Amino acid sequence: MDYIEMTENTQSDKVSGNPIWEYSAVIDATTNPVIIPDGGGVARDWLIAIFVPLAGSGSIEYSLSNREDIKAGTGKWRPWENGTVLASADDLLGPVNAIRCIYVSGSFILEVTAS
User: What is the pLDDT of residues 27-82, one digit of tens each?
Assistant: First the structure.
């Protein structure tokens, strides 16, 4: 199965000193899983945001399955609490191993950040 690995930003959080992880993409189809880095054993919360600039709708699913199962396409997925959104929305998720965006209509921007 295809998947996307998040990359580390070159900046660090000014308060914690932890690296900042980011992923951003314009979405016009259901995405492959975005693998969330393990953070070197540090449990992190991830800010997941959907920005709907014009007309669009979609939702997020997240997985607590191990990364190898996700990469193999056998991970279990759970919907985020916001359901399908028609306007910009965000949510703070505790430690997760992957997210994916479920496309419904139009286009929107997905952003994932943590530090």
Answer: 778 888 988 877 555 556 777 877 776 677 888 899 999 999 999 999 999 998 88
The model carries a pTM of 0.78
Strands (E), 13-52: 19-27, 34-35, 46-51
Q: How far apart are CA 89 and CA 60, in angstroms?
A: 11
Buried b (16+ CB within 10 A) or exposed e, 27-63: beeebebbbbeeeeeeebebebbbbbeeebbbbbbbb
Q: Which residues contact 108 (CB under 8 A, 6 or more apart)?
A: 26, 27, 50, 51, 52, 53, 56, 57, 58
